[in-house]
Amino acid sequence: MIHAYAAFEPGGELRPFEYDPGPLGVGEVEIEVEHCGICHSDVSMLDNAWGISSYPLVPGHEVVGRIGAIGPGVTGLEPGQRVGLGWQAGYCMHCDTCMSGDHNLCGEAQGTIIGHHGGFADRVRAAAASVVPLPEGIDAASAGPLFCGGITVFNPLVQYEVPPTARVGVVGIGGLGHLALKFLNAWGCEVTAFTTSESKREAALRLGAHDTLDSRDAKVLEAAAGHFDLILSTVNVKLDWNAYLGTLKPRGRLHFVGATLEPIDVAVFPLLAGQRSISASPVGSPATIRRMLEFAVRHGIAPVTEHFPLERVNDAIDHLRSGQARYRVVLNR
After folding, report:
1. Which of 39, 208, 263, 292 has the fewest CB atoms within 10 Å of its CB?
2. pTM, two decimal places
3. How are strands ordered across the β-sheet holding 248-256?
4. Domain match, 310 and 222 both
């Protein structure tokens, strides 16, 4: 039996839950969970904010642990090996996107917490193809958030071949944004954080921003016209996107990684006149996750984390909901 914590209704408290996963399937592995990050996506799923949740729901998709067992046909992984598991726990492995290496775009990908029990548990199962070994030199206790928050902000750097000479603005200095500042700084970019207070300005500079802009000051945004090659939005709220578009260079890109539910209202003419783009992306493929982990080790990048024992999962969720988390919350077993 797997021992977990599950919600039994939207917004409900997590309670102990046991389930029998049955025998390991072909190509599957079972991970003995050591640490599991808590992401805002876990909260969205707990609340059924996206209308795709099913209950009982075991959250947890930023898993770090050791391989406890391997199923038939698994190669390249072995019991005792420390690995990580992110948003996706499996892929079809036969569609064009999978065969092209874009597993994260697979239309039949199995979500780790969508119709599948996640990592708020002593063990979790996943397809071996979605499991990535941790490299030497990485801190296992803080690595979990890299498997969702980290790869979400790292993936666009690879997908759009962002050059180290780029000027990049980051909107939202939280769980995603603080990692974006760290990665972009190490990538070589000139990094600007859009902030709303002096305390956030100081934090952004410590995290890797070279400069900050007050996003509430229209004159400041106007003065930054044509400055950025890329703006990375990590927030899940609606903002005046036209104001941000105005700060882009010709051929600049406004890219969304925050899962906002609000429609994007933008004027077409500024896009057309400057050949600017609006885009978005999810997490990355297993290959890109490997690349991110290697980059993080090389440059000493780690999430800023706060830790709770798994038994205090509800306290940890409340702390995240309060907006006081700095910057990622991790459960320890």
Report:
1. 263
2. 0.97
3. 211-214, 190-195, 167-171, 228-233, 248-256, 277-280
4. no
